[in-house]
Amino acid sequence: MDICFAPSLSADECIDKVNDNLKLIQNNRFFKFGTDSLMLSAFVDRKKRKNIAELGCGSGIISLLLASRDRAEKIHAIEVQSYFASLTDRNIRLNGLSDKVYVYEKNVVDVKGDIFGHEVDAVVSNPPYMKMTSGKHNVTEEKLAARHELYGTIDQFIACAARIIKHGGDLFIVYRQDRLTDILVSMRNNRFEPKLITFVHPDPLSPPSFVLIKAKYGAADGGLKVSEPFYIYNSTIKDGAERQYSDKMVSVLENGYMAP
Predict the structure, then answer these.
(1) List of residues 6+ apart from 259 with CB closer than 8 A
(2) What global pTM score does this model have?
(3) CA distance 171 to 165
């Protein structure tokens, strides 16, 4: 464990204290750790697995949260961009998790199961949500890759998961609800059967912000459950008043787990 690791920071970087008493080096020029990543890490069930892989790890926050919660003996974090692969490595060392989390600078289109020497028990991913032909393109390549399918389409992310996962393994993914059809079709085409869907809303009066999906590799068709909507806040913003987190969100923040 790198208990004495003292990272040097660039002018744009800072160290933030985040959930589970973790410290996270983040860059102020790029997108920071968000609610979708927090919710995905809490969506992973409490079953401890031998090996988990994360596709497109960014700063490494999801892998770090899963490691701090002892969700797996080993977690393999895959990231195509050199800066973020290095950032993940620094965050791993900063939190003393080098014996649990391993980072690989790879594009998902090139990743196969033998990169780990074995197949993994589960895959988690917060992939880019937008097609290259849609939305406003951001100025920097890093921001573009965070939101758009610059380095891999959703089909390529799901196909990668299928190449590296064991039969019966679980896929946990967060995605935009307006592309739900795309991801469900891709899952079926790659032998993943969706088993649980949870729509996450800002509050009871707002449409969902994103959707969480659990799928099983090689499972029989059918058996899909749609859980009750998950509300982050109890109410909408009104007259600038501070909103209160819902009881379920408090549980996520305090316990790191989303009850089904």
Answers:
(1) 248, 251
(2) 0.88
(3) 9
236: Cα separation from own chain's centroid:
26
Token pair for residue 50? 């031998």
Nearest to 73, CA basis, from 117, 105, 121: 121
Strands (E), the chain: 13-17, 23-27, 49-55, 72-79, 101-105, 120-125, 165-175, 192-201, 210-217, 225-226, 230-231
User: What are the pLDDT digits (tens) for 197-207?
Assistant: 999 999 999 99
State whether residue 218 is helix, strand or coil.
Answer: coil
Domain ranges of the chain: 35-255
Residue 51 phi, psi dihedral angles, 5° rounding: -140, 135
As a whole number of angstroms, the distance between CA 245 and CA 58 comes to 27
β 49-55/120-125 pair status: parallel
Q: Where are the alpha helices (DSSP H) in 149-258?
A: 154-164, 180-189, 247-255
Superfamily of domain 35-255: Vaccinia Virus protein VP39 (3.40.50.150)
Please list, in sequence order, all residues whose beta carbon lies within 8 angstroms of the beta carbon of residue 229, skipping any fewer than 6 positions away: 198, 199, 200, 201, 204, 208
* Dihedral sign, Cα of residue 70, residue 127, residue 113, residue 26: negative
Asked if residue 20 lies in contact with residue 233, where contact means CB atoms within 8 angstroms, the answer is no
Q: Is the pLDDT of residue 143 over 60?
A: no
Q: Show the CA angle centred on residue 138, arms to residues 134 and 142, nearest 5°.
A: 110
Mean pLDDT value across residues 37-48: 95
